[in-house]
Write a structure and sequence with these properties.
The protein is α/β, with parallel strands linked by helices. It has 19 helices and 14 strands. The N and C termini lie far apart (61 Å). Bound molecules: nicotinamide-adenine-dinucleotide (NAD).
């Protein structure tokens, strides 16, 4: 009999997971509380940009394997496996994770859940959350010990979400009992057959794997950005330094790109929540370095403006026309959560500059949150009359733009390559003055 799966919370993680589970042949219902998102999903329209996902979602809706609802009770009573994919954002004014969405999801399931169902958390949570959720469930339904809990962290990358979900580097499951393991082995049977490592562990370890992975990635990025600061002070070139480091197979070259730093809905809030949770359980010192990782990352944003001031030869940005290339936190996504590019755009606006933002996909999202900034949908219109371009999200469109064409549109040919990916030789040949974080500077710029 076809396995019935519910996916509670259908944002970037849940919509992808729901479509992927349906693609594997299961019968899937996605549960969503946001009326706008739900209506869009029910019409077969993805409410966010993720390459290739909408097609797979639509084909599974048409095949009758995938549907979306706001009826959590009905989904709870129907599904054998209930995947929890709700958001776990940073709590307002605090470093820790806001678990209220997970609590609400459990409360909505509790009274209706199918006998013997398995609740599988996929959201990124502080260690100990599964136990808290299970206790909350049992407090509401004291006799429902037939319902089991497991944790199955998700490692997908936006921009590659479907591919990462269907063919992940590894599947990690944290379980308390053999029955739950057997059920999850059957859910992930296609991945196991493909030879993808399937790691079975206790629940605390499963919860920790995700935050540990994100902490490692954040640390690697901040490490090279710290080296960028040193290079700037010493007159070195961080891109050559990174290349030389990356050839060491123990280090590797991935996530070793100095620039404006990391952002998004995961890394920043995950390292903060991890540090906060570690503090609560008496292990705060072990991850105190994450505070420094965060600070290095946030300093990068000011640094971009410091470089802009050097290039404009003006400490005062009032009235200067600045064009920010990119609003999303990474290319191939419209996700603007904690986007370094937008943060720099806002800093420039606050410093009095006239800011225009361009992005191939994220303008509507950015406009909703920052209506005070100017926006242009075409690259040409965005750069026309600019005194400096800040290249902050490495969309292919910017890398493939012809510097000679753009030269003819701007008021001054200044550009900061905040991602260190543009061909500096090509841009200078076309007449541009370019600076980039961590590269040898024509002038000493105070770090900070
Ligand atoms: N986005 C990623 O790349 C990614 C990758 C791995 C893990 N994660 C983790 O996955 C979780 C979700 O992230 P996201 O990016 O998908 O967030 P998101 O905000 O895009 O999606 C969460 C969705 O859950 C819905 N929701 C909230 N409460 C609900 C409820 N009670 N019932 C039904 N729906 C509810 C929201 O309306 C929203 O659509 C987070 O913990 C995140 O850290 C995200």
């Amino acid at each position: 009999m076809t396995l019935k799966i519910s996916v509670i919370g259908t944002g970037y993680l849940g919509a992808t997971h729901a479509a992927a589970m349906a693609e594997l042949g299961y019968s899937v219902v996605g549960v969503e509380v946001d009326a706008g998102r739900l209506a869009s999903l029910q019409r077969g329209k993805l409410p966010f940009y993720e390459p290739g996902l909408e097609e797979v979602m639509v084909s599974n809706i048409e095949a009758g394997r995938l549907r979306f609802t706001n009826d959590a009770a009905q989904a709870a009573a129907w599904a054998d496996v209930q995947f929890l994919c709700v958001g776990t954002p940073q709590q307002k004014g605090l470093q820790s994770a806001d678990l209220s969405f997970a609590f609400a999801a459990i409360d909505a399931l509790a009274a209706h859940i199918k006998p013997g169902a398995l609740v599988v958390g996929k959201s990124t949570v502080p260690v100990g959350t599964t136990r808290v959720l299970e206790q909350r469930f049992l407090a509401a339904q004291p006799h429902r010990t037939d319902v089991k809990f497991a944790w199955n962290p998700e490692f997908l990358r936006e921009g590659f979400a479907l591919e990462d979900t269907l063919h992940p580097d590894r599947v990690v499951i944290g379980i308390n009992d053999a029955e739950s393991e057997a059920l999850l082995r059957s859910v992930y049977a296609p991945m196991i057959t493909e030879g993808i490592p399937f790691i079975v562990t206790d629940i605390a370890t499963a919860e920790l794997v995700k935050v540990a992975a994100n902490s490692f990635l954040a640390t690697k990025i901040s490490f090279i950005n710290a080296m960028a600061e040193v290079c700037e002070a010493a007159g070195g070139d961080v891109t050559t330094l990174a290349e030389a480091l990356g050839h060491d197979v123990r280090i590797g070259n991935k996530f070793l790109h100095a620039g404006v730093g990391f952002g998004g809905g995961c890394l920043p809030k995950d390292i903060r929540a991890f540090a906060a949770r570690a503090e609560e359980i008496g292990a705060g010192k072990a991850v105190a370095f994450l505070g420094e990782v965060d600070q290095i990352n946030l300093r990068r944003r000011d640094r971009i403006l410091a470089l802009a001031r050097v290039l404009l030869n003006d400490d005062d940005l009032t009235g200067r026309r600045i064009t920010v290339l990119g609003a999303s936190f990474k290319p191939d996504s419209d996700d603007i959560r904690d986007s370094p590019s937008l943060a720099v755009a806002v800093l420039a606006h606050e410093a009095g500059a006239i800011v225009t933002v361009h992005d191939p996909k994220a303008i509507l999202n950015a406009q909703r949150v920052h209506p005070e900034l100017g926006y242009e949908h075409s690259l040409e219109d965005a750069v026309r009359g600019a005194e400096i371009l800040l290249h902050l999200t490495e969309w292919r469109e910017y890398r493939s733009a012809d510097p000679a064409d753009l030269f003819n549109l701007v008021a001054l040919p200044n550009i900061i390559d905040g991602r260190n990916v543009l061909d500096h030789g090509q841009w200078s040949q076309a007449g541009w003055d370019m600076l980039a974080p961590g590269r040898t500077l024509p002038l000493r710029v105070p770090v900070g």
